[in-house]
Amino acid sequence: MRDRQVREWRRLKLLWENLQNIYYSEIAHDWRIPEMERSYEVSDQQYYDKPVNIYRAYLESIIAALSTTVPPITCYPDDADNPSDLATAKAGDKIAELVYKHNNAPLLWLHSLFTFCTEGMTAMYSYPHDDESYGTYDENKYEDQTTLNNVSTCPNCGSEMSNEPAPPPQIDPQTGQPMPPTEKALDPDAFQPGPPDYCPACGNLVVPTTEQKNVTVTRLVGVTKHPKTRICMEVMGGLFVKVPVWARCQKECAYLIYSYETHYTNVLETYPELRGQITKGQANYDIYEQWGRNSPQYRGEQPPNNVTVKNCWFRPALYNLLQDNELKVLQKAYPDGVNVCIANDKFAHVENACLDDYWTIMSNPLSDYIHFDPLGVLLTPCQEVTNDLISLTVQTIEHGIPQTFADPKVLNFNSYRNSEVIPGGIYPATPKAGKNLGDAFYEVKTATLSQEVLPFAQKIQELAQLVSGALPSLFGGQMSGSRTASEYSMSKNQALQRLQTEWTMLTLWWKEIFGKVISMYIKEV
To answer: What is the C-alpha to C-alpha distance for residues 227 and 206, in angstroms, rounded to an integer?
Structure first.
C-alpha cells in the first residue's frame, strides 16, 4: 500500500516539473522517461512531443485563488466578563502575529496549498528551536550565602526593626586565624543599647533589643548567555510523513514517522556521537523511499552522500506490544510517548514527547480515512490526453503537406534540380503522346487532420476545469455569454464557491495548528 502511494505521489511531482512522457518500470520500480532509455540524439517521436502543462497551470490557479489571504488567527476569551481571560486572548493574538512573522506565514500557506494539491494528506510539524541567530538573553545565576548579622527586635511586640551586619572578627597577627570573641563581647550585660527608635509595627518609641543571628542572603554570582527560542513550523506531505493507512483521524495514528534525506555531514553536526558510524557513501538505506522523496532533477539517480533521517513518534498504547517488565519501564520513562531519531540504521536520540503536541494532520470530511487523494489526481487523465492530441496534431500538420510524384520521362529532374526557382518561371516539359501534361504528375496527401480533433480538445479542457474547479473566471479566462461585468463578477463568485470545501478544510486545520503553537510559545518563553 505504501509503495503504491509513493508511486502515485512521485508521478504527480514529475508532472508538476513538466516531465510528462513517463512510464512506470516494473523492473526498476520507478517512473522512467523514454528519452533516458534512448541515445542523447533527438528521436523522431521526441521531436513531436511538445507537452503543454495544463496540470500545473490549473493547480497554480487554484493555489493563487486560495492564497490571496492567509487565514488570520483571533483568540476569543472563554468568559468575556473575566479580565484574565480577556488579557489571555489579547496575548494570544500578539503571539500569533509574532509567529506569523517568524515563519513567513504567506510562504508557509502557499506550500501548504501545494502539498494539499499534489500529495493530499497534509501535516504541520511545529517545534521549538533555539539558535543564536534569533538573539540571546542573559540568565542571572544566584547563590544563597549565610552571614552573621545584628538583628534588632522590638521589646513590646517582638517584630524585627533593622538588621545591621555583625562586626568582622579580629584576626590573630601570629596565626592569621580569626580570634574567638572576648568575654566582654559574649557578656550580654556588657552590651551598650543603641538609641531609641520607633517600631514600624506597633509605632512605639522603644530601645530595640539587639542579638546576633545567621541570616541567609541571595547574591548574584554570575551571568550566562543563552540563545533565544522560536516556534518553527514546517509543512509535510505523504512522501515525508508516514501514518497508518487504516487510521480515520489523528487520534487513531499509533505512530508517525517523519523521514527526510540530508548530507551526512549535517547529521554529524547535529549528532556528533555518530562520528565513525556514518561516513561518506552510505546512501541507499531505503532506496524506494529515497527515490520518492528525491528531487525530480536527479532523473532517477541517487545522491551518494545523503543519509535518511527518521524521527519516529510512538503513542504509549504501542507499549502494549512488549512484555510486562519492558512495558512498565517505558511507561515510567516515557509517560507521554516516545520520540526516537534514527540516522540510516544508527540510533541517534530518544526523548519523552507527545505526538499531538508537535503534529497536526489535516482532516478531510470527504474521506473516511486520514489519507485522501490529492486534487491533482483528477487532472492526470486530461493532461495525458492533451499531450497525445498535441503530438498527433503536430505530426498530422507536418505530414499533411502533399507529396508530388512525376514521370521522369516528362520532367528532367536533374535539370529542374539545378535550375533557379523563380515566381512565374517557365520550364520545358514534353507530355506523352496522346496525353495531357497533368497526367504525368500525381499529388498525395499522407495525412489529414480530422474535424473532430479541435472540438474534442476543447471538451477535454472543459472537463479539466470541471474536475479541478479551476473555472475560467478564476484565472481570468474568456467565458461564453454576453460577457458583461456583472456576469464576470457572478462567475467569479461561483468559481470561488466551487473551492469553498477546500477552503473550509484548510482554515480549520490552520486554526487547530495555532491552537497548539500559541500554547507551545507560552510554555517555552
So the answer is: 54
Exposed / middle / buried, residue 306 (Cβ in 10 Å: 0-12, 13-18, 19+): buried
Helix (H) / strand (E) containing 212: strand 209-236
Task: Return the beta strands (E) in 86-122 as ranges.
Answer: none
- Confidence tier at 524 by pLDDT (50, 70, 90): confident
The DSSP secondary structure of 453-522, one letter per residue, reads: HHHHHHHHHHHHHHHH---HHHHT---SSS--HHHHHHHHHHHHHHTHHHHHHHHHHHHHHHHHHHHHHH
- Cell 471538451 -> residue: 459
State the pTM of this model.
0.75
Q: How far apart are the two ends of the chain, measured CA to CA in Å?
A: 42
CA dist 462 and 379 (Å) reads 11
Region 351-363 average pLDDT: 93
Residue range 417-442, pLDDT digits in tens: 787 777 777 777 778 877 888 888 87
Please count the other Cβ atoms lying within 10 Å of the Cβ belonging to residue 111: 17
CB-based contacts of 88, cutoff 8 Å, min separation 6: 75, 77
The radius of gyration computed from the CA coordinates of the chain, to the nearest angstrom, equals 40
- Share of the chain residues as helix, strand and coil, in percent rounded to the nearest 5: 40, 25, 35
Q: How far apart are CA 113 and CA 111, in angstroms?
A: 5
CA distances from 150 to 72, 105, 164, 180, 210 (A): 61, 61, 5, 17, 6
pLDDT at 128: 92
DSSP state of 437: G
- Per-residue pLDDT of 161-188, as tens digits, reads 765 444 455 666 666 666 655 544 444 4
Calpha distance 517→513 (Å, rounded): 6
Max CA separation in the chain (angstroms): 163
